[in-house]
Design brief:
The complex is a heterodimer. By secondary structure, chain A is α+β, with helices and mostly antiparallel strands. Chain A has 9 helices and 7 strands, in the order αβαβααβααβαββααβ. Chain B starts with a helix and ends with a strand. Classes of the chains: A alpha+beta, B alpha+beta. The interface between A and B is large, with 93 and 96 residues.
Chain lengths: 229, 225
Amino acid sequence: MKHFDLLETKRKHVRKYSDKIPEKQLIENALWKAWKTTPGKNNAMAYEVLVWGPDKQIHKEAIHSLCVKNHRHAEERAVKKGQATLTQRGEQNPFYEHIKYNPYLLTIHSRVAKPNPFYQLKVKDGHFFDQGYEENINHIIDSVAVEVGIFAANLTNYLLDLGLDMSYNSCFKRDVKLWHKLGLHQVKQRPILMVSVGYAEKYRRDVLKEWGKDKLDYKPEIDEIVRWL
Amino acid sequence: MNTLDLLCKRKHVVKYKDKQIANEVLDILLEKSWKATSSKNNFMAYKINVLDNTKTVEKELVWQKLVAKQSESENKAKEDGQGVGFSGKPNQYYNHIKNNSHLLVITSRVCEPNDFVKQAITEGHVAHEMYPEFVEDIVDNTAIEVGMFISHLTLFCMEENIDVSYTACFPRDINMWKNLPFVDQRPILLMSLGYGDYYRYQNLEKNGMTKKDYKPKLETIVNWE
């Protein structure tokens, strides 16, 4: 199958994963390929991928609670600022459930990097290795997030090739102290993205169809995104 | 060719050939990337400005901003005790920004909601992508999606033997882009496209640096909990 066809037909947001657990080796293999083929500015790859496996249910529930809390707080702030008139009154977004129930959850976080020997020499010549300082993490978050996006998209290709499903989430608390409060001390730096992996039982688009809303949820036209100058 | 082999073909370009990519070809690749890339709430809160081979003046101006940024950040690093300061020599690996077939200048974008999101908003959903004051707050998420878009575009370019290179070193402040008015929101990434003539890895080989410039080990990046 051509790469475009694979992405167009196979990548779908998962509402519910099946109980079937993919072999660990498949995930390891896809992660290795994503690592191998994802470039990084200054070869720093200033991020870390934590893999929460099938035995980490309590951890996944804690992580899910950070998504729900973030969603609720965002709505409350919007009401205070006059950007919304009401909240969803704490009602949980069902499309976050893939974070709680999945065989594998990846949480991707910033990482303070060390320069390789080539960049150590460059630093001596005046080059600034900005990924090497904790205080720069928020300042460089956009370029690190672009790389995380490339990594996640490459990983997606490899997982789809293996017949696996995955879903993304970027709605969660960024403050690492809130993760530590829940006992998630494995997390050292701010989170950037979550990716769940497994075999899907039901997709989001099936749910929208059941609700009669599938035609309402379209993307912007291409000329809104791409502008030829 | 499988995905791994195809993506392994990507190499940072130092110099492109004079040969141009037909606008029609790039248009198709951009459309495939647009179709294949998912987005939070279907917003796609970014804009891709395409400069073809006729836009040499604009590309030169973009390149000047990279050098200004290099100078500023290296001198700032010196002040902070994190470097020795700008040597006055522009980074040669920025040259792909001014000499290429096409340059993409990707910026944030303030969005309108689709019908599904409009309905959700009436029920209390909040969509930060609609407000210019949140552009900076949500840039991490927007940048992830830009990364996904360019990853797909790269894959489709590799299928067509088109080379690509990226740069994330430029001023983020919109006020620094006033002489390029199409940059109407904060920039996120620059991507050049063309047919490579000389690559960064060849330069490293020539200087005996290949073995020194490696990426972190897999276990540094991926940790099984």
